[in-house]
Here is the input.
Amino acid sequence: MKKIEDERIIAEKRKINSNAFGICFIALWGILLYRQFMLDQDIRQYMDIFLLTMGLSIYITVNSVFRGLYLTYRSRKERKKVNLISAITGATAFIIVQAFTLKIDFSDFMEIMKLGISFIVFLSVWVISQSILFNISESKANKDADD
Amino acid sequence: MKNMKFKLSRIEKELTQEQLAEKVHVTRQTISLIEAGKYNPSIKLCIAICKALDKTLNDIFWEE
Here is the structure.
């Protein structure tokens, strides 16, 4: 019996699989955060989930970048603005989490300084890495379009 | 919006939805959905349909 090659069915199946993957991916991150922050587990206790989640995240990012799909906004100015806003949001969240998990003493000037430095380092790494990823993706997309 | 031009072309060619579906390698439901205007086929499928019905893309898929 001939297998069905109907594009509509194939597209719908892909959509369902993609949605299922999206749900699993979010659930994995949820489990990871729950184990880390609610159960206070050691990383060795959830290493399998950690590696799976990180592996999937890296797979998605690398594929998006090298297929030229890691593009968000058309204008460079808008992209820079969004990149900076997301970096500030990310760095702020990082600092808040760090302050709670490391139980920072806010009366100690040195600890506040350390937090400030962490904020700047996180922000810089985020902005630089995002810019690099955007540039690689854009040049890949342009190359594909010009070929 | 229903694609009446598609439906009329199929009837003119004396093909059932099932027969046309077999010719273009899709299911009868897909043909029915295209006729009902509930599914947008790819250009590849549009061309296959046009060839099966001896029509051009304009004849079947161009909206007036």
Observations:
- Chain A is about 80% helix and 0% strand.
- Helices of chain A lie at 7-38, 47-66, 76-101, 109-146.
